[in-house]
Specification:
Number of strands: 11
Order of helices and strands: EEEEEEEEEEE
Radius of gyration: 13 Å
Number of helices: 0
Helix content: under 10%
Length: about 110
């Protein structure tokens, strides 16, 4: 099982960027996919999740972030618009089927400068 996250880096406040997570080693279509983040000195926060025909967003990103999945490439993306310095965090990709089949990517850092 592998979740390879990419994207992120340094962006200016108000700009956009996109994170991608390429999945392999499991049946992608059967798993709920999520993006979570951990800001410096803070706990883990679920940013967005996508299941079968359903998406959910954290209050702090609703209306600015969009999660979508590409079944043909087994990839989940997080489009992040109108970025704020408070969005600075390490972003993690997660794939979950149940409490046993719960997989994590390595994390990718997004830094938003004001």
């Amino acid at each position: 099982v592998q979740l390879q996250a990419s994207g992120g880096g340094l962006v200016q406040a108000g700009e956009s960027t996109r994170l991608s997570c390429a999945a392999s080693g499991f049946r992608f279509s059967s798993f709920a996919m999520s993006w979570l983040r951990q800001a410096p000195g803070k706990g883990l926060e679920r940013v967005a999740a996508i299941g079968v025909g359903r998406t959910n967003y954290g209050k702090s990103v609703a209306g600015r972030f969009t999660i979508y999945r590409d079944g043909s490439n087994n990839t989940v993306h997080l489009q992040m618009d109108s970025l704020e310095p408070e969005d600075t965090a390490v972003y993690y990709c997660n794939a979950r089927r149940d409490y046993i089949r719960d997989y994590w990517g390595q994390g990718t850092l997004v830094t938003v400068s004001s």
